Amino acid sequence: MRFDVTDLRLFVAVVDAGSITHGAAEAGLSLAAASERLREMEAAGGVRLLDRGRRGVTPTEAGEALAHHARAILRQMTQMRGELGRYAKGQRASVRVLANTVALTEILPGRLAPWMAAHAHVDVELKERQSVDIARSIASGFAEIGVLSCVAGTEGLVLRPFARDRLVAVVGPHHPLAERAAVRFADLLDEPFIGLAEGALWRHVEAQAAALGAKLKLRVALRDFDGVCRMAGAGAGVGVVPETAARRLRRSTGIAVVRLEDAWTMRRSAVCVRDEAALTPAARSLFEHLTAQGR
Q1: SS3 at position 189
Q2: Which of 129, 203, 244, 272 is buried most, with the most CB atoms less than 10 Å from its CB?
Q3: Which region is the signal sequence (predicted)?
């Protein structure tokens, strides 16, 4: 039975996600390629590794054993790369960082810039994920550093403070809510919304609406906070954006900023890693830089 590193990463991702589709995406494979690899793994081992159902997949007893050993192997490979990296001379390095929407768009560019300027031989692979997915990916070794909301399940990870921010509502200057200092999110559920296309933050906002038994009326989904604020400022709908973005864009877009009173809108974020000792030299340097900024 021969499993390569891609097989092991895929299997751990599928087990953690409880879904072949999501596990394939995390491992950077198409669904067809991932499904074929999983079939080949089961055929090679002569044992069923996953129970497949309507709501996803769960590991069999053999699958649990494989996942346990796969995690150990992947951890050892990370440690090996870290140790060998100390001896590398003149070679380019890469650090994979996962971040939630707010960190990716509003905070990380400014914090990464000086570090990257001082480390010209290091590239950063930066991807957006939801905080829960970030915690899972860091724990499984799919990335070295994560920046996530502190409400995510982070048991077993090393956490350091990163930033604090609040989500606010943005509306046009003539909107009935424009004169209000604060509102509850529930007060907005009947409003038409301007959302973010495929953003982790927008999925979080939709989840909060679902928890209240509502589905948001989405008029259009845009790619960035600038677009959301411009639409809201023109009276096309209501947006929910970080307060840092709203302050930055208030003058240029004409928005009125309304504080949201709900506890979930106050967000503390953290930088996380699985094991500081196992980080590559480049990843450790970046982690120390981001945590120093957080302090």
Answers
A1: coil
A2: 272
A3: none
Stated pTM of the model: 0.70
Q: How far apart are CA 50 and CA 63, in angstroms?
A: 6
Question: Are 209 and 215 in contact, with CB atoms under 8 Å apart?
Answer: yes
* 295 has a pLDDT exceeding 70: no
Express as a percent the part of the chain with pLDDT over 90. Answer: 64
Q: Domain limits of the chain? A: 5-85, 93-163+268-294, 164-265
Q: Cα(127)–Cα(124) distance, rounded to whole angstroms?
A: 10
What's the angle, vertex CA 294, arms to CA 293 and CA 295, rounded to 5? 90
Right CATH for 93-163+268-294 from 3.20.20.80, 3.40.50.150, 3.90.1700.10, 3.40.190.10: 3.40.190.10
In order of 46, 279, 289, the CA distances from 92 in angstroms are 41, 16, 19
54-143-83-111 Cα dihedral, nearest 10 degrees: -170
Same fold, 5-85 and 93-163+268-294: no
d(CA 42, CA 39): 5
Is there a contact between 141 and 70 (Cβ–Cβ < 8 Å)?
no
Average pLDDT over residues 178-187: 96
Q: Helix and strand tally (H, E) in the chain?
A: 11, 12
